[in-house]
């Protein structure tokens, strides 16, 4: 099994394609992915893509494993109240967690340590253990509350990586725009990426 493990939490902000592409890239990079998805994110996936994800963790795990041709056990899916899962504790959680996309609701819950579902708890664990936490918020415009929550989390060491693709690579398609953001996330994780040329190359 893959040595590197990452928690990928998908919440109900617009931009489901970022999450799905990131999952694909992590699988290709032979990373084990501990996958969490909120109910709102399930609705966003239906709205924004052609996919209808199975709602139950076990069926979703099988679906994603087949879709991304992952190795058995490479993608693990946990339900929102699976407090016995590895991500719920500092002793079992991976060294990095990405919330992509990150809704302003989940952003707020993480900033205040709410821990009311497994995504919020896993992020709380990442913060308390001083592990890598990458948040990919999307909203427009941002309210003062959103900005203050981002500042709070940034000061705690989280990386705020907004879903705001640049255009200097002259994107030709939506996929190019998605890859811009996903490349940034992979770079933060220290995973080699070929989606986007590095600046100056
Ligand atoms: C199609 C759709 C798009 C949404 N887009 C956003 C968004 O871009 N940013 C955001 O913060 N919330 C957005 N929302 C609202 C969140 O899904 C909602 O606040 C939800 O409670 C978030 O729950 P979660 O954090 O548990 O996923 C959207 C909802 C839907 C259905």
TrEMBL record:
FMN binds at residues 12-14, 38, 103-106, 138. Its EC number is 2.5.1.129. Gene3D superfamilies: Flavin prenyltransferase-like. Keywords: Flavoprotein, FMN, Prenyltransferase, Transferase. Coiled coil: none annotated. Residues 5-188 form the Flavoprotein domain. It catalyses: dimethylallyl phosphate + FMNH2 = prenylated FMNH2 + phosphate. GO terms for molecular function: carboxy-lyase activity; flavin prenyltransferase activity. It is an enzyme of class 2 (transferase). It holds the Pfam family Flavoprotein. Dimethylallyl phosphate binds at residues 168, 184. SUPFAM superfamilies: Homo-oligomeric flavin-containing Cys decarboxylases, HFCD (SSF52507). Signal peptide: none annotated. Belongs to the UbiX/PAD1 family. Flavin prenyltransferase that catalyzes the synthesis of the prenylated FMN cofactor (prenyl-FMN) for 4-hydroxy-3-polyprenylbenzoic acid decarboxylase UbiD. The prenyltransferase is metal-independent and links a dimethylallyl moiety from dimethylallyl monophosphate (DMAP) to the flavin N5 and C6 atoms of FMN. HAMAP family: ubiX_pad (MF_01984). PANTHER family: FLAVIN PRENYLTRANSFERASE (PTHR43374), FLAVIN PRENYLTRANSFERASE PAD1, MITOCHONDRIAL (PTHR43374:SF1). This is Flavin prenyltransferase UbiX. It comes from Halopseudomonas bauzanensis. The gene is ubiX.
């Amino acid at each position: 099994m893959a040595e590197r493990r990452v928690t990928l939490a998908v919440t109900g902000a617009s931009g489901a394609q970022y999450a799905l592409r990131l999952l694909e890239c992590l699988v290709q990079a032979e990373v084990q992915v501990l996958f969490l998805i909120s109910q709102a994110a399930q609705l966003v996936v239906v709205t924004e893509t052609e996919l209808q994800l199975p709602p139950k963790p076990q069926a979703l795990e099988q679906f994603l494993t087949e879709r991304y041709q992952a190795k058995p056990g490479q993608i693990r899916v946990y339900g929102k109240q699976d407090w016995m899962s590895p991500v719920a504790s500092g002793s079992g959680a991976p060294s990095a967690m990405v919330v992509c996309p990150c809704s302003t609701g989940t952003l707020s819950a993480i900033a205040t340590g709410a821990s009311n579902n497994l995504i919020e708890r896993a992020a709380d664990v990442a913060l308390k253990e001083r592990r890598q936490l990458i948040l990919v918020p999307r909203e427009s415009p941002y309210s003062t509350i959103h900005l203050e929550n981002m500042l709070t989390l940034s000061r705690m060491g989280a990386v705020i990586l907004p879903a705001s693709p640049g255009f200097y690579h002259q994107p030709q398609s939506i996929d190019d725009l998605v890859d811009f953001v996903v490349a940034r996330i992979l770079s933060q994780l220290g995973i080699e990426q070929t989606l986007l040329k590095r600046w100056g190359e």
